[in-house]
Write a structure and sequence with these properties.
With 123 residues, the chain is an alpha/beta fold. It has one domain: Hypothetical Protein Mth938, Chain: A. It has three helices and eight strands. It has a five-stranded mixed β-sheet, covered by helices on one side. Strand 4 and strand 5 form a beta hairpin. The longest helix has 13 residues. The protein is globular, with a radius of gyration of 13 Å.
Length: 123
């Protein structure tokens, strides 16, 4: 599914998503990742939803975001609240949704100039 036609200068935009890949700025990525408008972080969440720990979410604190969109794969799954404590402590909002919805929402918030990050899991 194609998500965005134009790529704003210097910003990471999700341009398409498939069942086992995410395309950012027309470059395909085949593994879970962290995403901000300025940065792509590979290696986050590659072991899958069930292997995530609070330490994984603690890494997101350093990204300088106000809101995290957590894409949990093909279906929406909620992490145990204890895993999100590192984000909650520093007042980072967390929205949990399936990965396709997180990609669409990320593009909207990024285009509005919001300080957004997306943690995107692929099944």
């Amino acid at each position: 599914m194609k998500l965005h036609q134009d790529i704003p200068e210097g910003q990471n935009v999700v341009t398409a998503i498939g069942e086992r890949w995410i395309e950012i700025n027309r470059q395909r990525h085949g593994a879970s990742l962290l995403l901000t408008p300025e940065w792509i972080g590979h290696g986050w969440g590659t072991a899958g939803f069930d292997a995530l720990e609070a330490a994984d979410f603690a890494k997101i604190v350093t990204l300088g975001c106000e809101v995290l969109l957590f894409g949990t794969g093909r279906r929406q799954r909620f992490p145990h609240p204890s895993m999100l404590q590192p984000l909650i402590r520093v007042r980072i909002g967390v929205e949990v949704m399936d990965t396709a919805a997180a990609c669409r929402t990320y593009n909207i918030l990024m285009a509005e100039g919001r300080k957004v990050a997306a943690a995107l899991l692929l099944d």
